Amino acid sequence: MGLAPLAQSARPLRRRPCRRGHRGRAPLPGVTPDPYLGGVFAAVTSVALVGIDPCPVRVEVHVGGGKEAFQLVGLPDTAVREAKERVRAALLSSGYRFPYRRLTVNLAPAEIPKAGSAYDLPIALAVLAASGMVPAAVTGVVALGELALDGAVRPARGGLGAGIVAAAAGFPCLLPPGSAEEAAVVSRAEVRVVRTLAEAVAAALGETAPSPPSPPPETASGASVDLAWVRGQALARRALEVAAAGGHHLLMMGPPGAGKTMLARCLPGMLPALTSAESLEVACAWAAAGRPRPIPSEPPFRSPHHTATPAAIVGGGSGVPVPGELTLAHRGVLFLDELGEFPPYLLDALRQPIEEGWVHIARKGIAVRFPCDVQVAAAANPCPCGYAGDRLVACTCPPAGVARYRRRFSGPLLDRFDLQVAVPRLDPADLCGPEGEPSAAVRSRVAVARRLQAERGALNRSLSRRDLDALQWRPEATRLLRAAADRLALTARGWDRVRRVARTLADLAGVGAVAEEQVAEALSLRAAG
Amino acid sequence: MSDEARLRLAFCGLHPDRADRLKRAFGSPAGAVGALASGRVAAPEAVRAAAALPFAACRERLARLGVTPLFRGGAGYPAHLADLPGAPDVLFSKGALPAQPGVAIVGTRRCTRYGTGLARVYGQACAAVGWPVISGLARGADAEAHRGVVDAGGAGVAVLGCGPDIVYPAEHRPLLESLLAGGGGMVTEYPPGARPEPWRFPPRNRIIAGLAGAVVVVEAGETGGALITAAAALEQGRHVFAVPGDVGRATSRGCNLLIRDGATPVLDPADLVASLSLLLGPGRAPAPSGPAPPVEGPGRALLAALPPGGAALEEAATAAGLGVAEAMAALARLEVAGLVRRDGGLVLPGR
Questions:
Q1: What are the DSSP calls for A377-421, one per residue?
Q2: pLDDT (tens digit, 9 = 90+) per residue, B153-190?
Q3: Mind listing the pLDDT tens digit for each residue in B97-153?
Q4: Which of A197, A385, B167, B280 is most buried as measured by Cβ atoms within 10 A of its Cβ?
């Protein structure tokens, strides 16, 4: 490195009159001049995420006259802005010229914030097309990828979204290896794997390019446990089945080591398998969180730790908001182990998204929402030491401490738990007992109950007071409810919770009008208070 | 022995053994109070100030608190306690103090479900036949015994290890109030303002045993207040009963040791009442508690299978031979009928 290269690249202070690019002057050979703009224009489709939904982005490039420049507009972040340098180097390395003219790159629609290096490849393709170095047909693709300075294409985030956008637009999809596998799961997408910019141009012009290997079938995730492995715990099994059938949030209380976590892990396997639309949503949610995964068939199971930050659980973070654990658990189960250890502000932050099924994040200039249609399972010790009410071990907590601990569970979030069940420590005799019923058997009963709910139009979890009033109740059932409200001091919310669970029990039993039997069982599954 | 000097000495809030030594050394309570007030005996400033308190001020303070002083040998002081060597000269009491010996039900503060359940049913059974039930208002077994008395509407006596104006533990204030409202009493040898310091509790236990004709220990480890009470009872010639527990369990070891050393093992409440009748004289027949609502089917089986200390629903269902769904429905009906109650994961008999 010396002074010589600098001196060479230094511009003369007084510019020569420009002979190229002005209106009326001869354009670059082979480029059709735009009669209105006095320049040429090309656009390639790429993808940005709005929440977790992929949204097509038009990468427009205008090559016009004027002072030489390379402008990037349309809410790009720093990584996108740096695309200029990578694109210029990659074009030159790949054997193309770089049009030293007034280049304007617009990422439309302009109000969606764009992040990351994924727009390098579409910008390069659009620059090539606009400057006439390659036929305009290269723009009929959906492209995504980061360019290396030598013209290689590197994987970038958003492969799955590109596949979805390409399938919707009917374009082929050009993706680098590493991103292409994500898009391959979209059944109608025509995915071409490109390793370099030159390969991308060739593939866009219809030359053959290898398609990505078909995704491996999803192996059974380690998260899920089969109910057959759970010994004893008949009460908790029943509660899990009811929770699965009605989508109810479930709270399990029991001493350490009773098997609460294992029981919760059984829940995804008891839920109906995801439909293809649902599994694509789950895959999108995971991809949006930067954790691409094969298309799942089993509902996801997430178990965030109680020390996680609100941003990690609810979503957010610096820059473009990223989905949190709530959204990773979308269409599945969010398990809150040691509920008493979660700080109150975190539980408060969870309440509204769980109720609504959406996380809303508003930032300066943007508001995104992430889906979080989750079923919550929670586990807690009955007291700080965990042994209150145990058959053999004396609880060592002062009663005031137990009362203080229990008060943590009386917040507004707890009002959403329709089901509360005690999970006692197992008798050693039960551990040697026979295997229980497998998840698949329960799942088929759950599926029947869910079908009945689908016919009524809503999961029992989301039945409002008005919906519940409109349901059919046998007179004895109403009588028992009234008596219970009197004698057990049910609150209005508690009364609704009992009715929702009773409806699910009736669905499991396959009866139309809720009978006294079901109300009685629901009363025993109610949360205290 | 003047009431005046005895009351002023009691107001010093000394450990009973120290008070006895001072009385012996100075010949009388009056001498002891004088020595304390004048500083001839080393004592904390608070004790010296209390010793200097004139009789009228003591009286006035007690009247303000609604506390009655009872003097050994005087009216209202239980005769069976007064006869014992080492009985306190003055008792501070609230409510009614029964004249005849009662049953003391004591146990560890760190009770398992087994102990709390039994303390409550024994308390209920003894109160139902009209015997006063005496205990220490501590957490665990003591409080459950008192609750059993309140359930049965009987008379109970709480013997405190602090001044009559203090409730320790504080969360038992409502329990003490319902005990007093139900015709029971509260008694302590410590003056108003005496904090519940650890050294105050062992001497308190001799009053529990002294007020009772028999002591029942429901659950106790190898050390602890319940065993001190049992030892005091033996010294005073009271009968000691102990509830046998699991041999391998530390929380029942004290009871099992008592049985080994000759205490009478207690089985169910009826057995306890039968044994106690020989000591305390027959109680009145338990008041018929209204016609019990008829329970049939699974509810009856569930109720029959429920141990006094309660059980997890699943245990009860297995014991009653019911499926969980059936048992849950039966439980809810029993709960609405007021025959069982739930506490956390436990199902307990009674409301």
A1: EEEE-SSSSS-TT-SSSPP-S-HHHHHHHHHGGGSTTGGG--EEE
A2: 888 999 999 999 999 888 899 999 999 998 999 999 99
A3: 888 899 999 999 888 888 888 899 999 999 999 999 999 999 889 999 999 999 888
A4: A197
pLDDT at A358 over 70: yes
From chain B residues 321-340, the ones with a CB under 8 A of any chain A CB are 323-325, 328-333, 335-338
- Which residue, among A274, A249, A276, A266, has the nearest Cα to A301 in the 3D structure? A266
Neighbours of A403 (CB within 10 A): 12
Domain ranges of chain B: 1-64, 102-280, 297-349
> Could you give the dihedral angle defined by the CA atoms of residues A340, A344, A348 and A353, in that order, rounded to the nearest 10 degrees?
-50
What ipTM was estimated for this complex?
A: 0.74
Tens digits of per-residue pLDDT, B25-71?
A: 999 999 999 999 888 888 898 899 898 889 999 999 999 999 999 99
Q: Which fold would CATH assign to domain B297-349?
A: Arc Repressor Mutant, subunit A (1.10.10)
Tell me the pLDDT of chain B averaged across its residues.
Answer: 89
- Look up residue B273 and give its two tokens: 């009442």
- Cα–Cα distance for residue pair A432/A524, rounded to 1 Å: 28
- Looking from the CA of A209 toward its CB, the CA atoms found within 13 Å total 26
Q: Is B314 on the interface with A (CB under 8 A)?
A: yes
**By the CB < 8 Å criterion, does B116 face chain A?**
no
Cβ-Cβ pairs closer than 8 A, A with B, add up to 103
CA–CA distance, A269 with A450 (Å, rounded to integer) = 15
Chain A 265-304, residues with CB within 8 Å of chain B CB atoms: none
pLDDT at A446 over 90: yes
List, in order of start, the domains of chain A with CATH numbers: 21-204 (3.30.230.10), 227-455 (3.40.50.300), 463-529 (1.10.8)
Cα angle A300-A306-A309, degrees, rounded to a multiple of 5: 90
Answer whether residue B296 shows pLDDT above 80.
Answer: no
How many angstroms separate the CA atoms of A502 and A412, rounded? 22
> B312, A525: Cβ pair inside 8 Å?
no
Confidence of residue A218 (pLDDT cuts 50, 70, 90): low
Q: Is the pLDDT of residue B91 over 90?
A: yes
- How does DSSP assign A332-383, residue by residue? SEEEESSGGGS-HHHHHHHHHHHHHSEEEEEETTEEEEEE---EEEEEE-SS
| Contact flag B113-A389 (C-beta cutoff 8 Å) | yes
The minimum CA-CA distance between A350 and chain B, rounded to whole Å, is 25
Confirm if A270 and A241 have CB atoms less than 8 A apart: yes
| CB–CB contact B328 A390 (8 Å) | no
Taking the complete model, does pTM exceed 0.90, yes or no?
no
Residue A91 burial (C-beta neighbours within 10 Å; 0-12, 13-18, 19+): buried
Q: What is the predicted pLDDT for the residue at A200? A: 93
Fold of the B102-280 domain? Rossmann fold (3.40.50)
**pLDDT of amino acid B265:** 94
Is A36 a residue whose pLDDT tops 50? Answer: no
- C-alpha neighbours within 13 Å on the C-beta side of residue B134: 29
Q: Is the pLDDT of residue B308 over 80?
A: no
Band of residue A7 on the pLDDT scale cut at 50, 70, 90: very low
Task: Let me know if A399 is exposed, middle or buried by CB neighbors in 10 A (0-12, 13-18, 19+).
Answer: middle
Please report, rounded to a whole number, the percentage of residues in chain A having pLDDT higher than 90: 41
Q: What is the 3-state secondary structure (H, E, C) of A91-124?
A: HHHCCCCCCCCEEEEEEECCCCCECCCCCHHHHH
**Residue ranges in A136-233 assigned as alpha helix (H):** 159-169, 180-183, 197-204
Of A122, A136, A113, whose CA–CA distance to A60 is shortest?
A122
Helix (H, G, I), strand (E, B), or coil: what is residue A193? strand
Answer whether A233 sits within 8 Å of B314, measured CB to CB.
yes
